[in-house]
Amino acid sequence: MNHIGRIGWMLIGLALSLASAVAMADVVAVVSAENSVTALNKSQLADIFLGKTNRFPDGTQAAPIDQAEGSAARNEFYDKIVGKTAAQIKAYWSKIIFTGRGQPPPTVSSSLEMKKRISENPAAIGYLDRSMVDDSLRVVF
Amino acid sequence: MRNDEAFGQSRKPSLLSKLQALTLLTTLTMWHPTRATAEDFGGSMFSVNGFGTAGVVHSSDDKADFATPYEPNGAGYSRNWSASVDSLIGAQVTANLTPGLTAVLQVIVQQNYDNTYWPHVEWANIKYQFTPDLDIRIGRMVLPTFLVSDSRKVGYGNPWVRPPEEVYSLNPITTLDGVDGSYRLHLGDVTNTLQADYGRNLSIQFPAAHLDAPYAAGIFNDTEYGAALLHLGYLVSNLTVNAAPALFAGFRRLGPLGAAVADDFDAVNKSVTLLTIAGRYDPGRWFVMAEWIRSRSESYIGGTTGWYVSGGYRVAAFTPYLTYSQVSERTTSIAGLNPSAEPAYLAPTVASLNAGLNQLLASRPVQYTSSMGVRWDFMKNFDLKVQLERINLGAGSVGTLINIQPGFQPGGIVYVISTAVDFVF
């Protein structure tokens, strides 16, 4: 006799779909496979994406690229590397822009666009869902 | 919900077709027509950004005005609810002229010292980036004297409605026309930025006085390690303030001793130094910041010490915060000219001049404020803040209040409530 019942199966199905949703939102930082960088820590990533440096630890040029404002990938990325919300990141960049110190990284409108930009520029670094990673990219965080 | 239950059919979709449907759905939701604009990838030279605040303030004391330093009126006596204290709008054009050369122009509209709303230029400079870590700027700059001095008008960037007045009102020189250089050093995970500024022929108009400085020079250093920041600043200038000209002229008519009192207190060609130390820890879920500043001048401006501590905690889109801030003066009253140094018939004149001098000294702010508020990031690019302040004026002091009316009681307690909407675009 199936004691789980219809409600039980629905709940299990819901749990599994939530688990797969979480797995889908596993954002990773990526560079071109041609880039010499193999791994970066949170602090190094934060320095690059927050404009504090435009070089990788090995001294080569780093060109960060953001996903669109409000996208799940962007929100999860910044939560992961600096624990800040989209509003906090915006507030941070407002202070930089309005003191003439710089501009935020350029944005792309999708993960496909992100892959294209990274493949065009070996110095580029971006982030996207792990499921989108292929041989042209290397995961660095 | 299983498909067959949803559609009331007994057919079960195969695993393969489920994957196909999922893939199609994923691809459709994630793929958009390319929207990266020319500005994003170096195609356009200009970018336009702006910021603003729309806010109202109410003060419990209607015999004086609560306002910020350059404003001629505010909340309390002049208006029950004042929108001029915090409201402003700013727009900025940034031009990337060549890969290393950038020009910035920022114009702000807010209440001016003369109660007009003519726009004024806040930033106008050209920056040359020698290397990613070394740059020089020529033109108009706002000095990064305190932690958020150079972005104090960008409400969206700060946790409070306005930076604590006990510290932020203490620097009369906020902007200078001159040159500055910045050098950034990377040592492992530490980033250190050193900035030096020099400006000439400063002329600053306040509602009640005019300030001239032939030069101002400052050196400012930020050391960052993860979420921690340490800020040091040192500013030096030479000020001439035309405050109370009749008072000091009166002293100068009373022989060498009277002239000595005038020389001690009149702010004519007087050196002013400002030293500040600040720290901030901002790991994301919460923040704490503290600043301390000491200014010294051999004039009635005197020796002022100001400091504050502020902290907040983020819960979803809300960030409540608390602040305690204090400002005090080294000298709040003096005996002045000794009446016995002058002929007896001049005794009332001496007494009157000494009283005037003490009144001038009492106009220097002494107060402490406890405040609490909350910031709500209710939608993209906007925030709403509500803040309540309890200002405890020092004995005999008017604190940071202006437009003192007859019947005002110095040394009392004033409650100020402010609400503001900040935005950036």
Quickly name the level 1 CATH class of chain B. Answer: Mainly Beta
Overall structural domain count of chain B: 1
**Helix amount of chain A:** 40-55%
Distance between the termini of chain B: 43 Å
Helical/strand content category of chain A: alpha/beta
CATH second-level architecture of chain B: Beta Barrel
Mean pLDDT of chain A: 87
Task: Walk me through the structure.
- The complex is a heterodimer of chains A (about 140) and B (about 425).
- Chain A is an alpha/beta fold.
- Chain A has one domain: Periplasmic binding protein-like II (D-Maltodextrin-Binding Protein, domain 2, 3-Layer(aba) Sandwich).
- Chain A is about 45% helix and about 15% strand.
- Chain A contains 5 helices and 6 strands; from the N terminus they run αβαββααβαββ.
- In chain A, the strands form 2 sheets. In chain A, strands 2-5-1-6 form a 4-stranded mixed β-sheet, with helices on both faces. In chain A, strands 3-4 form a two-stranded parallel ribbon.
- The radius of gyration of chain A is 18 Å and the shape is globular.
- The N and C termini of chain A lie far apart (about 45 Å).
- Chain B has one domain (about 55-85, about 140-425): Beta Barrel (Porin), CATH 2.40.160.
- Helix content of chain B is about 15%, strand content about 50%.
- Chain B is built from 6 helices and 19 strands.
- Chain B has a 16-stranded antiparallel barrel. Chain B has a two-stranded antiparallel ribbon with strand order 2-3.
- In chain B, helix 4 (about 245-250) runs antiparallel to helix 5 and helix 4 (about 245-250) runs antiparallel to helix 6.
- Chain B is globular, with a radius of gyration of 27 Å.
